Amino acid sequence: MKRTDKLFILTLLLVIPLKIGFSRQIAIAHQQQKATREIEFIPTEVETKTDPRITNSDNPETNTTVDTESVDPYETLVKADFLYQQGDREAAEELYRKVKAPFESHQNTMFPDPINNAENLSTEIQTQWEEAKKAADKNDNLEMLQEFVAQHPEFVPGHLLLAKTLQKNKKEKEALQVLEKAASLLPDSAEIVEVHVKALKKEKDYLKASIAARQFVLVNPESPEAEKFQEIADENFDKFQNNIKGQMLGKGIFGTAIRVGSCALLGNCDVVGIAVGEAIKMGSLMLQGESGLGSRAAESYKKKLSLVEDEEVVEYVTKMGNSIAELTGRDDFEYEFYVVRDNSLNAFVFPGGKVFVNTGAILNTNSEAELAGIIAHEVAHAVLSHSFQRIVTNNLYDSAGNIISDVLKTDIPIGNIVSNLISLQYSRSNERQADIIGTRVLATAGYAADGLRNFMVTVDEKYESKGSLSFLSTHPASDDRVKYLEQLIEHNGYNRYAFEGVEKHREIQEKLKSKME
C-alpha cells in the first residue's frame, strides 16, 4: 500500500466520528434571564475613574446640555444599574442617557433592509437595473452589474444575478465570494443564504454549508424559515460525515483501519499497533464532538499557563460567561471559563466553548458589559464552529503527514492543534459573524447592547498608537467596525440603556491589581 493511502486512512479515521449537535432553542426565548443578577447599591465615595467611552452629552429627551460638573459618570452608572436591577427601567434609562453619548448620526449602509422586488426601487434605479441585466446577459460584461450591486447592496436580485453569471462563466470561486459577502451584508435574507448554501453544497463543501445555514438560525431565531435552515444545517453536516465515511468504504479500508493487530496499514509490524492504537485514541476523542476535542486541547494548554485561581474572580467570569452561553442553543457544549494571568488585552476560545480570558481584558475594560461583550464574541466563534473549522482545515487535512509522525511517537498531536488555534487569524467574515451573534446574545442577556462596541472603542483609544494588540492579531479589525456595530444595534433596536455592571467590575479590578503587584 502506498504511503499516501496510509496517510489518507488515518486522516479519515480522525474525522469519521464527528457529529455536531445543535439545539434550536435559541437565546431569545430566555428573556426572563435579564433580571437574575443582583446588586446592592451602597453609596460610597470612590475616586472617579475616567471612562473614555462614557461621556456627558446633550440629553436627547430635552435637548439641553447636561451640567458636566454635577454628573459623576461612575456614580451615575452605579445608581442606574441598581435601578435597572430593581426593575425601574425607565428611571435607569434616564440616568444611563446622562452619561452615555448618543452614537454619531450616520446612514444605515451596513445593515440595509433587503429589497427583493425591482418594483420597490425608484424609476431611475429600475432603469439602471435593466441596463445592468442586459449588459451581463448579452456580453457577459459584469462591470456594470458589479457597480450596480456595489451601489445598491440592499437589492437581493443583484447579488443573485452576479453570482449566477459568474457560475455560468465557470467562476465558481468568485461566485461563492459574492454570495458570502451578500449573506454577511444581508443576514436576514433567507433567499441569499439558501442560494449560498446550495453553491457550497455543489462544491461538496458540506461543512461550510452547514455553518452558513446554522448562522441564519442564530441570527433569525424567530424567522418562519429558521426550522427549515436548521434541517439544512443538519442535512449538510450529515453529508459531510457520510462523504468521508463513503470514501473509506469505497477503498475497502474501514475494517482494516480498526484492526489494531493488522500489519497491512503501514507495512511495519513493529509500529502498526502503536500507530493504529493512537489513531483510535484520537478517534475516540473525536467521538465526543467539539467539546471532547476542546477539553483535550484546553487541558494541554492550561499546563503552559499561569491561571488565576481566586474564587471570586473566577466565579465572576464564569457566571458572566454562563449567562451568555446558555442563550446560544448549543446544548452539546460543556462551557468552561478560565482567567489567564496575562496583561495583554485578549481572549480566545477552543472548540466546544472552552473560553480563556486574560487578566488584561478584565483590567482594561470599563464595565462588566464590555467584558461580557468580549466573552459573547468568543462564545459566538465557538457556536459557529469557527475554531473547529480551523482545526479541520489546518490539522486533519493539510497536516495529515505530521499527525501520523506524531502518532508513531505515541502522542496525539494536541500540541499542533493548540498552536494553530491560538495563532491563526479568524477571517473578517468570521469576525463579522461573531460580532453579529455576540451582540444579539449580549442584548438578550440583559447587558447594555453596546458592550462589544464600547470595547472596540476602548481598543482604538488605548492602543491606536501603541503598535499591534494581541486581540487584533487573531481578531482582525476593520476601519468601520465600530460604525457597523452601531448600525447593527440601531437597526435591530437593541437596548443600549441596560445593565453596565460598573461597581462589581471595579471591585474585581482592584482585587486583581492587589494580587498581581
Which SSEs are present, and which pair or pack?
Elements: H1 3-15, H2 73-85, H3 89-99, H4 123-139, H5 143-151, H6 156-168, H7 172-185, H8 190-202, H9 206-219, H10 226-250, H11 254-258, H12 272-287, H13 289-302, H14 311-325, E1 336-340, E2 347-350, E3 354-358, H15 359-363, H16 368-383, H17 386-397, H18 400-408, H19 414-423, H20 428-444, H21 451-463, H22 470-474, H23 481-492, H24 502-516
Give a written overview of the molecule:
The chain has 517 residues and is mainly alpha-helical. The protein has helices at residues 3-15, 73-85, 89-99, 123-139, 143-151, 156-168, 172-185, 190-202, 206-219, 226-250, 254-258, 272-287, 289-302, 311-325, 359-363, 368-383, 386-397, 400-408, 414-423, 428-444, 451-463, 470-474, 481-492, 502-516, and strands spanning 336-340, 347-350, 354-358. It has a 3-stranded mixed beta sheet with strand order 1-3-2, with helices on both faces. Strand 2 (347-350) and strand 3 form a beta hairpin. The protein is globular, with a radius of gyration of 25 Å.
Enumerate the strands of the largest sheet in spatial order, edge to edge or round the barrel.
1-3-2
Percent strand equals under 5%
- List the secondary-structure elements in sequence, H or E: HHHHHHHHHHHHHHEEEHHHHHHHHHH
DSSP helix count? 24
Specify the structural class.
Answer: mainly alpha
- Share of residues in helices: 55-70%
> How far apart lie the N and C ends?
61 Å
pLDDT < 50 runs, ≥5 residues: 6-68, 247-287, 395-413, 465-474
How many DSSP-defined strands? 3
Which geometry do the CA atoms define?
globular
Query: Major sheet, described briefly?
Result: 3 strands, mixed
The pLDDT mean sits at 75
Rg over alpha carbons: 25 Å
